[in-house]
């Protein structure tokens, strides 16, 4: 089911209009997929603005950690590495994979690198393990194992993964905007989240988010082409005005101020600072293998869930829920993981925020060309690229989260509990554990166990049993003393 109203109902902008009849349209199959060049461009912009925060956030996460020698990565170099790798891998996915799935440094994986790997070794050693994980991903694709795992996932569980991603990105939007916040542990309460910063909605930034969400939804209801992008631009403009006239303590990650000098010179000093096997000498063979396995597990299934969810929403799957040409997409994702390690920006992976572009009607890799081009421009225009506050961009995630849910939930067979219960577990564990990988893992384990309990074990593909066993082992690793 499409994630945008313009894609659901005919508008004056019909498929093919503005797409042209030249080589560009033929190469990216824009008209063939029912899209237009304006939709692809809007989608590329929407995806970029929805995920541009990574240019700021990834350096904060990696730059705040120290390796075993007390060394920290330079923030300016991390900004360059993050933007450069996102630009390269997103363009690669667009031009070769021809799908509107943008890539950048993966949240979650960068925390693993910063908090688990780096304290036990040097930064080049840690990034070398990320490169090795990328090589393994490429090997799994080349042998057909990764595609086999994806194709083994039942249709109902695929839809649950898409819904879980929708709920997850909606929660990301609520948290990043400040509409919902974490209750500190010192409060000694079992309730993890609260409304606003102290149980109330206070301040102009939250108001910008609320207005942006209402504007986005209103434009979608009105079937206005460019609804998400219009809202992002309008709320950024409003945020600039509000910040200029009001005394605001903090906007969170990004303060919306027009930069005095919008041009910044990129520093490529971290590119290639990698030691492939140095980490094994520091921590030993077994621990090193487990570290690579941890990075691999997160990269493999986070990307799998995102690719399945985004491709389904973009109507790139067939009647069986499988995407033609998936191997190219999966191989590029493996290249992206290795490229992230090689640039010292951590593992690069598919971003769920790509659904913002799909929500604008993006259906081809040309949207990625736009997004990748903007990341490349961000190398020199980082002050402008990071000017958009999260309160202006995150309404897109809330709106798209709802549209994914509305389009997929009716596709699940709720009468079959061996599908319904795993689907329920999958879609809830993603937001509740703040992890796509955990949602997939717990859903797979539940599916295998319930099919066995129902005497339908032979209906479960062997690949599903294997993956469920891997997940079960990963969850038992701390109890076994292997972490």
Could you walk me through the main structural features you see in this protein, from its secondary elements to its overall organization?
With 483 residues, this protein is mainly α. It has two domains: 5-160 and 258-389, no CATH class; 413-483, no CATH class. It is globular, with a radius of gyration of 22 Å. It has 22 helices and four strands. α10 packs antiparallel against α11. Strands 1-4 form a two-stranded antiparallel ribbon.
SSE arrangement:
Layout: H1 5-8, H2 23-28, H3 37-51, H4 54-63, H5 75-97, E1 103-105, H6 109-117, H7 123-142, H8 145-152, H9 155-177, E2 180-182, E3 193-195, H10 204-221, H11 227-245, H12 278-283, H13 285-313, H14 326-342, E4 348-350, H15 354-359, H16 366-378, H17 382-385, H18 390-393, H19 395-408, H20 417-433, H21 436-453, H22 462-476
Helix pairs in contact: 3-16, 4-5, 4-6, 5-14, 5-16, 6-13, 7-13, 7-14, 9-13, 9-19, 9-20, 9-21, 10-11, 10-19, 13-14, 13-21, 20-21, 21-22
């Amino acid at each position: 089911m499409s994630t945008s109203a313009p894609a659901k109902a005919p508008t004056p902008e019909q498929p093919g209009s503005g797409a042209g009849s030249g080589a560009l349209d033929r190469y990216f199959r824009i008209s063939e997929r029912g899209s237009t060049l304006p939709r692809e461009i809007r989608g590329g912009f929407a995806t970029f603005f929805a995920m541009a925060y990574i240019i700021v956030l990834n350096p904060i996460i990696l730059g705040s950690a120290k390796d075993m020698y007390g060394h920290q990565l330079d923030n300016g170099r991390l900004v360059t590495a993050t933007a450069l790798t996102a630009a390269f891998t997103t363009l690669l996915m667009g031009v070769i994979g021809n799908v509107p799935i943008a890539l950048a440094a993966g949240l979650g994986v960068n925390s693993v690198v910063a908090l688990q790997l780096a304290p036990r070794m040097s930064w080049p050693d840690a990034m070398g393990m990320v490169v090795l994980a990328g090589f393994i991903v490429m090997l799994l694709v080349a042998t057909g194992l990764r595609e086999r795992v994806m194709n083994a996932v039942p249709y109902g569980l695929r839809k649950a993964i898409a819904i879980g991603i929708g709920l997850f990105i909606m929660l990301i939007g609520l948290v990043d905007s400040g509409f919902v916040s974490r209750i500190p542990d010192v409060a000694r309460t079992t309730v993890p989240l609260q409304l606003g910063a102290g149980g109330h909605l206070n301040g102009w930034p939250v108001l910008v988010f609320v207005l942006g969400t209402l504007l986005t939804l209103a434009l979608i209801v009105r079937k206005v082409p460019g609804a998400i992008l219009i809202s992002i631009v309008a709320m950024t403009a409003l945020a600039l005005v509000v910040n200029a006239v009001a005394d605001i303590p903090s906007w969170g990650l990004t303060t919306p101020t027009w930069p005095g000098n919008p041009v910044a010179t990129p520093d490529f000093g971290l590119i290639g600072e990698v030691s492939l096997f140095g980490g094994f000498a520091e921590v030993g063979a077994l621990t090193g293998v487990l570290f690579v396995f941890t990075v691999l597990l997160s990269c493999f299934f986070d990307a799998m869930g995102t690719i399945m969810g985004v491709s389904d929403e973009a109507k790139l799957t067939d009647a069986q829920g499988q995407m033609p040409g998936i191997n190219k997409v999966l191989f590029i994702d493996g290249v992206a993981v290795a490229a992230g390690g090689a640039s010292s920006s951590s593992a690069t992976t598919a971003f769920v925020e790509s659904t913002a572009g799909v929500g604008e009607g993006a259906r081809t890799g040309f949207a990625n060309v736009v997004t990748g081009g903007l990341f490349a421009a961000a190398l020199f225009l980082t002050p402008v690229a990071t000017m958009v506050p999260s309160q202006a961009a995150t309404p897109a995630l809330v709106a798209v989260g709802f549209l994914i849910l509305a389009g997929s939930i009716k596709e699940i067979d709720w009468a079959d509990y061996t599908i319904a219960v795993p689907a329920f577990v999958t879609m809830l564990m993603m937001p509740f554990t703040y992890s796509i990988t955990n949602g997939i893992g717990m859903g797979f384990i539940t599916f295998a166990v319930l099919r066995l309990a129902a005497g339908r074990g032979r209906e479960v593909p062997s690949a599903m049993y294997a993956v469920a066993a891997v997940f079960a082992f990963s969850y038992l690793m701390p109890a076994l003393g292997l972490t």
